[in-house]
Amino acid sequence: MKKTIQIGLYMMIASLILTIPSMAQDLEKELAAITAKYEKAYNAKDVKTLVSMYTADAVRTFSDGRHFSGTGEIGAAMTEEFAGTSLKVSIHPGGYDVNPDGTLVSKGTYHLEGTAGTEAVNTNGSYTNTLAKVNGEWKITKSSLVLEQ
């Protein structure tokens, strides 16, 4: 009996170990799809799609002190940000960590280029996003953007 339990336990552990790489690959694909969707929507100035990627109580902060809470404020800030600009973003994911509560922390860099009003923009920055699964879909709960000086 004891040997049967040990064998069963070893089999369970082995199956978990074998599925972890597959789960990580799936997660990487999901994050790549989220990144591509965000980049495409940003470059199209599609505020509706961008806002749909955040939870209702999400927080978006910038290194210059700007802070927006909730999809209403985030959407209004994006609308204002896009007014009079022709900016294009290129996002480069750097990796992620899975938290014990099932949320993810995704980090990476971005490059922003174009014009804001009459001023040329060509800058880099980094981001840290926390994401949670809501109704089977990853949503951003917290986004911190740091502009390189």
Count every beta strand, where a strand is a DSSP E run of 2 or more residues: 6
Q: Specify the CATH architecture.
A: Roll
Kindly identify the CATH topology. Answer: Nuclear Transport Factor 2, Chain: A
Mean pLDDT: 88
What about the largest sheet? 6 strands, mixed
Shape: elongated
Assigned CATH class: Alpha Beta
Structural class: alpha+beta
Give the spatial strand order of the biggest sheet.
2-1-6-5-4-3
Give the C-alpha Rg: 20 Å
Q: Any idea how many domains?
A: 1
The residue fraction in helices comes out at 40-55%
Percentage of residues in strands: 35-45%
Head-to-tail CA distance between termini: 66 Å
Q: Supply the number of helical segments.
A: 3
Would you mind describing this structure in some detail?
The chain has one domain (2-147): Nuclear Transport Factor 2, Chain: A. It has three helices and six strands, in the order ααββαββββ. It has helices at 2-43, 47-52, 70-82; strands at residues 54-62, 67-69, 85-98, 104-116, 119-134, 137-147. It has a six-stranded mixed β-sheet. Residues 18-23 have low confidence and may be disordered.
